[in-house]
Amino acid sequence: MKKTEEKAVEHMEQEKPAQELREYIPVTDIYEKDDGILIRCDMPGVPQDRVDIRLDHNELEITGTQAAGKPDGMDLLSGEYGTGIFRRKFSVPQQIDRDKIVARLHNGVLNLELPKAEQAKPRKIEITAGG
User: Fold this and answer.
1) Distant-in-sequence, close-in-space partners of 99: CB < 8 Å, separation ≥ 6
2) Residue 63 scores a pLDDT above 70
3) β-strands 84-91, 22-24 pairing
4) Is the distance from CB of 26 to CB of 88 less than 8 angstroms?
5) CA dist., res. 54 & res. 79, Å (int)
6) pTM of the model
7) Sheet containing strand 22-24, strands side by side
8) 71-82: per-residue pLDDT in tens?
9) Cβ neighbours of residue 94 under 8 Å, at least 6 residues apart?
10) Are 110 and 51 a contacting pair, CB within 8 Å?
11) Is 50 helix (H, G, I), strand (E, B) or coil?
């Protein structure tokens, strides 16, 4: 592809509305322990201000839009990496403490901690003697 054609393609990608961007399903690992659930999603190229996390009833939706563009002062010679939107939906148990959810994005990995509400945590039932 000629340099001018590559610049035109790059310019078009930067102007694409969100509904025209390629949609990716982020690779995700889900872990559970007694006090909560950890969801870890790979979202390369997504800056923190372009991540949207919504919890509606028991449906969790994670959306992240990659930042389009090229490094300052550089021209694209060959482009194989397409920008797009990462989107994933999950069903989560109702026993999540919604006020204590924590999200962290570091090096393209989103860690979402969903703590369980106190009544959902396992507990040991003590047996008393007598009748």
Assistant:
1) none
2) yes
3) parallel
4) yes
5) 33
6) 0.71
7) 22-24, 84-91, 59-65, 51-56
8) 788 888 887 777
9) 57, 58
10) yes
11) helix
Q: What is the pLDDT of residues 65-124, one digit of tens each?
A: 997 777 788 888 887 777 899 999 999 887 889 999 999 999 999 999 999 987 766 677
Structure tokens that stand for 82 in this block: 């397409």
- 91 by DSSP, 3-state: which? strand
In the chain, where are the structural domains located?
3-69+82-118
Which CATH number does 3-69+82-118 carry? Answer: 2.60.40.790
Show the DSSP H helices in 1-131 as ranges.
Answer: 3-15
Question: Residue 2 and residue 27: Cα distance in Å, rounded?
Answer: 34
Rounded CA-CA distance 20/85 in Å is 10
Q: How far apart are CA 9 and CA 14, in angstroms?
A: 9
